[in-house]
Design brief:
Length: 296
Amino acid sequence: MNILQMDMNLLKVLYLLTCTGSSQKTADKLGISTSAVSHALARLREVLDEPLFRREGHRQVPTLFALSLKEKLAPLFSSLDGELFGHVQDVPRNFTLVAPPALHPILLPLLAQKSTLVNADIRCQNFERRSWRNELLEGSIDMVIAVGDHQQRTSTLCYELIGSTRLVAVFGPPLQPVLQHKSGLAFSELADYAHYYCHPWPQAENELDRQGLQRRIQLSCADYAQLPPVLRAAQLMAVVPQPWFSAQPDKQGLFTLPILDNLAIGHLFSHYRQGELEWKKRLISTLHTQLRPYYQ
């Protein structure tokens, strides 16, 4: 049978149960009793002639068949979330943002202010170079600010280019005498210097290194916050997006050189659900506005 021709109320139960794994959470989201969820699940099993879930402790674990149905339903329900499921006004407001750590100096002060203004708990999660489509569709995250080419586009998710920027080489006083007469660095020249690698993803997944650059990583620690003291202490350089340096409050003793090749130009975009709550839409728009001056 065509799953999309079934009773919408049964489909809502099926979809939410595959997302939450909990009859209670599904009932709370729909504003019905847990017994109503159980009755709907029994009806679904009868109509589809399939168990759909197995119980493991307190969780309802979907079968492969149930997960395949979820894939079909996710685009529909993610775009119509407010209309189909409603929203309980008294529940805590939550907003989960996925963003590269290089954007923290730009975004975190704003998010701290907005968390108070909109009375929301805002969680900032580190971006990883992978697709975030399923988490967005299921609602476990609200927005992805991404670099790279790993996102899967779908008509129910908004995909918006924020802008582009250039990578720069940052260094401190120990390396400054060597580089003081240069106005920029060619892509190939980066291999001539020892580097501090501060990105949260492996070097093999870094945009520059994927182009065949053989950099010597002398110190690796996925922490941008330690970059200024590290570069002030040792003859190392770090390659970072220009916006990170522009927003960095601790620039004392630090110098930058642009990386001249087009390979050093990076793009930033956002991914989020259509049909979001109004306060989430406003927050997403504010984040775009905050970032655009740094990305042309």
